[in-house]
Amino acid sequence: MIFYVLFVFSVFVSDTCRIEGATAAAYEPTDVLLLNCGATSNTNDTDNRTWWDEEYYEDILSWNTGNQSFAAKAYFAGSHVPFMEARIFRSNFTYKFTVSPGWKFLRLYFYPTLYGSDFNANGSYFSVRVNGFTILKNFSAYLTVTTSKPESKYLIKEFIVPVFETLSLSFIPSSNSLAFVNGVEIVSMPDGFYTKGGFDGQITNVSSNIKNVDEATALETLYRLNVGGHMVSAVKDTGMFRRWLPDDDFLLSENSATKQILPDVKIDYTDTTPAYVAPEDVYNTYRTMGNSQNLRLNLRFNLTWLFKVDAGFTYLVRLHFCDTLQGVNEPDRRIFTIFIGNQIAKLEMSIVSHSRTASHAPIYLDFSVYVGSENGLRPDLRLDLHPPKKFPSIFNDAILNGLEILKLNNLDTIAELNVANTSRRKRIVTITLIAAGSVALAVSAIVFLIFLVRQIKRKNMNNRQNKSVAMFKVLLKHYTHAEVKKITKSFSHTIGKGGFGTVYGGNLCNGRKVAVKVLKDSMGNGEDFINEVASMSQTSHVNIVSLLGFCYEGSKRAIVYEFLENGSLDRFISRENKPLTLDVTTLYGIALGVARGLEYLHYGCKTRIVHFDIKPQNILLDGNLCPKVSDFGLAKLCETRESIVSLIDTRGTIGYIAPEVFSRMYGGVSHKSDVYSYGMLVLEMLGARSKKIVDTTIDSNATSAYFPDWIYEDLENGQQTWILGDEITTEENEIVRKMILVSLWCIQPCPMDRPPMNRVVEMIEGSLDALEIPPKPSMHISRGLVPDQSSSLPSFSHGYEAEENNSNL
């Protein structure tokens, strides 16, 4: 009770007086706590901040009773602290930190990846509570990372919470799951900094009725942007270690905004806007509407940003302004209107009027807005700036330097979108099937029963697809068929065709070019469509094509992808397109990029994805010839520990399909099938598969259909001129030889003799001297289903090697 009184008193004092001298220096926090969870020694991060191991904080040593948690290292840790280790929780677990009373930044660090030998954080769901606030509910770090902007492998969740003496941080695993965390950061802040209002001490209500934020509320930072500028790292902030990201990913159209940078301007902080509010890097950069030669053009459009938020919450929007343009020294020189959520937040905004000075004095304003669910569970919160015609000024322009958006959560409310409970769905489906089966047995004859079972299966397929689509609508942008028609200009520009349907070029409303795959109306029950969207919704990698949205209206199905300027790899390696032929270095870069993309699908996703259709037509190239794996219509999602993939039908393209897909005499179908296809792809890139044309069918016994023995003869004789002619250099010849050797390892007929994709990447990146020519295999003997190891396979150290030795998939 005493600490509560002290806390309220401190807030009251901060609201009624200003601290003299605060304008001269950044903030010095009372508490700075950096906990490297799961680490056994103290380490420094890239900003040279020291992260302490858990034993350093003696007051939290008693928590690990009953083996509630364990520490583990990340496979792909690199050198980024605190993402190299994690503490993993089997059951409810609480850290307790003793800190001074007041508002605190709480930052939680997550890296969803593989840990140890048996924990994949991509499938982790859990909740987090802090001092009575549920700040994360059924939270998935992996899903959050894959849907966040800008793209990153790591995630930092920042909260602002009131603390009276002890900060209790609890991790609560969801059913059949574990929880984890990589790092915990606690930093003090000036009292009332995010709760009392802007520089004027006010919170302007746009569509809510809050006047201030009290200790019954916690806040979550969703966006903190340096508008028009670069990223400002934690150590370059003003003492509170905040990160300010660029705003480029959130502009509706970059064509409607102009960056302005004035690095030599000295910012004149004031008593109402002290130096700790935002760093000079924020106030020295900004965006305007531009068109300085014809300012009347600015009256025709808005300066607009879009931010994804959760429906059903109130948000605090903080806008930072500092007009450093010479000539804007009178209140009427620059006037503009602020719209938040399509509502007027401030009709006449004049920075000079607010700052009451002609110098470079910054200000910041706070607005509150409630976002309802009428536009979906994850709508866009829109911010518009516009010079009004009613109040003409010399500069018909708008300006913004920085922006922060924070979500307000009351005691015992949630801060994350609640993901539907999978086990509950399974129980409902199971009960439905049992009930339907019982009725069928009671009232149906044999013939009718068969018919009923077929109907039930069809219904279950539709239900499963509908549930999948409902989930995709939460995670992805859903387009109506009318919107797809508008994007493609009534399907007027065809850029590709196939058995699946047609790919059209188009443009989104912000001008971004896209490729729209429209599936044929008659294409079965939509399983390929669900496969592709399900697979792509889980991916985020530089070598995987980005899925931007989808359309699902009965038989009208379409998938919206990023547009790749250079089209498919097939255009460049086709013998008919000699002018487009690529040099050895470029071919090597493409081969390495595809390998990394497949490595990500097999090991970096929450659920392993086997593509089953790797071929030149499904490798797309961007403007820099960076390869991206596309077309996931035949892909199959499978648990990482599965040993064999069950296939009802043959998947793939003749010439690239692994032999075990046709005949189990070679072994079981697994992720090694993609390895085989990759090897054939690289040989095709080098022209090896085109030297001799082999007519074969799926029933052929010709060994050369799966393994081109004649390549061995050329390698032994040093004859590689069939690749790119006689003019390649010695260095290029070595690169080609390495690519061929890696390909030969990949196309071994028995899956167990092929390296996994993580080793393939190492082999391509490694030295030619480390590679041997693989032995010529027998095409008629299956080596069975045994672990991935071969005495003749080159040995490479890799984080996944332990998994490969324990799993056949």
TrEMBL record:
<keyword id="KW-0418">Kinase</keyword>
<feature type="binding site">
    <location>
        <position position="517"/>
    </location>
    <ligand>
        <name>ATP</name>
    </ligand>
</feature>
<keyword id="KW-0812">Transmembrane</keyword>
<dbReference type="InterPro" id="IPR000719">
    <property type="entry name" value="Prot_kinase_dom"/>
</dbReference>
<keyword id="KW-1133">Transmembrane helix</keyword>
<dbReference type="GO" id="GO:0004674">
    <property type="term" value="F:protein serine/threonine kinase activity"/>
</dbReference>
<dbReference type="InterPro" id="IPR017441">
    <property type="entry name" value="Protein_kinase_ATP_BS"/>
</dbReference>
<dbReference type="InterPro" id="IPR011009">
    <property type="entry name" value="Kinase-like_dom_sf"/>
</dbReference>
<dbReference type="InterPro" id="IPR024788">
    <property type="entry name" value="Malectin-like_Carb-bd_dom"/>
</dbReference>
<dbReference type="Pfam" id="PF12819">
    <property type="entry name" value="Malectin_like"/>
</dbReference>
<keyword id="KW-0472">Membrane</keyword>
<keyword id="KW-0732">Signal</keyword>
<keyword id="KW-0808">Transferase</keyword>
<keyword id="KW-0325">Glycoprotein</keyword>
<dbReference type="InterPro" id="IPR001245">
    <property type="entry name" value="Ser-Thr/Tyr_kinase_cat_dom"/>
</dbReference>
<dbReference type="Pfam" id="PF07714">
    <property type="entry name" value="PK_Tyr_Ser-Thr"/>
</dbReference>
<feature type="signal peptide">
    <location>
        <begin position="1"/>
        <end position="18"/>
    </location>
</feature>
<dbReference type="GO" id="GO:0016020">
    <property type="term" value="C:membrane"/>
</dbReference>
<dbReference type="InterPro" id="IPR008271">
    <property type="entry name" value="Ser/Thr_kinase_AS"/>
</dbReference>
<protein>
    <submittedName>
        <fullName>Probable receptor-like protein kinase At5g39030</fullName>
    </submittedName>
</protein>
<keyword id="KW-0067">ATP-binding</keyword>
<dbReference type="GO" id="GO:0005524">
    <property type="term" value="F:ATP binding"/>
</dbReference>
<keyword id="KW-0547">Nucleotide-binding</keyword>
<feature type="domain" description="Protein kinase">
    <location>
        <begin position="489"/>
        <end position="768"/>
    </location>
</feature>
<feature type="transmembrane region" description="Helical">
    <location>
        <begin position="428"/>
        <end position="453"/>
    </location>
</feature>
<feature type="region of interest" description="Disordered">
    <location>
        <begin position="779"/>
        <end position="809"/>
    </location>
</feature>
<dbReference type="InterPro" id="IPR045874">
    <property type="entry name" value="LRK10/LRL21-25-like"/>
</dbReference>
<keyword id="KW-0723">Serine/threonine-protein kinase</keyword>
